[in-house]
């Protein structure tokens, strides 16, 4: 199979980093399924990439719902073939002090930001393993490494969970030509950032050694490398992309 014909499934592709990743992979020649719970935005991104839907497919699904994930994977399989590349990017960035987070809100954020990664990875990894080639990238966060300043404890705990799930699946799949890695951005200029109180984004930028927020296309380029053939010896890693905010 040529690289041009690979099928990529990107979650949370309706805006921000997910839209940039989908765009990058599409430009690199992949067939791209863009999944999001916001149908209007994901259709707009997919149509912008390919108006007639031959090479970019908008899939409306809520990653909180396993049946919707199953249907989404089936749809992609029937349109092209089971995904060769999965990018688990969808997440909710939710603030809240440890004293204020309600337990049902905790469960909700963990479901979107962590359980969905487990469920969708399992669904997509089985055919990758059979085929003997696959690439999975999980979009984590500096918050999962150090605890967040913007998002709450539920978000940070979920992202820490994503980092260890990355290793668990990487070990499970390494012998089958399937790599699993995480990228850990810090503050990236996306609609999630626009929702912050005025001046907060500038404060965050001032605290970053390179002196600015990251751009979605910078994360997308890194993901593009991780899903390439060249990255076959790289698995179970967390690749920091944070402007020097965490050096280790
Ligand atoms: N922007 C940042 O500074 C930053 C920093 C670190 C990590 N991240 C991570 O990068 C990823 C993308 O972040 P972003 O800033 O682009 O976010 P964003 O909020 O701009 O976009 C997230 C997308 O995911 C979709 N989504 C949310 N919940 C969903 C669900 N249940 N089912 C399906 N789709 C759902 C939204 O509709 C939206 O299109 C997330 O995993 C986030 O945690 C972002």
From TrEMBL:
<comment type="similarity">
    <text>Belongs to the short-chain dehydrogenases/reductases (SDR) family.</text>
</comment>
<protein>
    <submittedName>
        <fullName>SDR family NAD(P)-dependent oxidoreductase</fullName>
    </submittedName>
</protein>
<dbReference type="InterPro" id="IPR002347">
    <property type="entry name" value="SDR_fam"/>
</dbReference>
<dbReference type="InterPro" id="IPR020904">
    <property type="entry name" value="Sc_DH/Rdtase_CS"/>
</dbReference>
<dbReference type="InterPro" id="IPR036291">
    <property type="entry name" value="NAD(P)-bd_dom_sf"/>
</dbReference>
<dbReference type="Pfam" id="PF13561">
    <property type="entry name" value="adh_short_C2"/>
</dbReference>
<dbReference type="InterPro" id="IPR050259">
    <property type="entry name" value="SDR"/>
</dbReference>
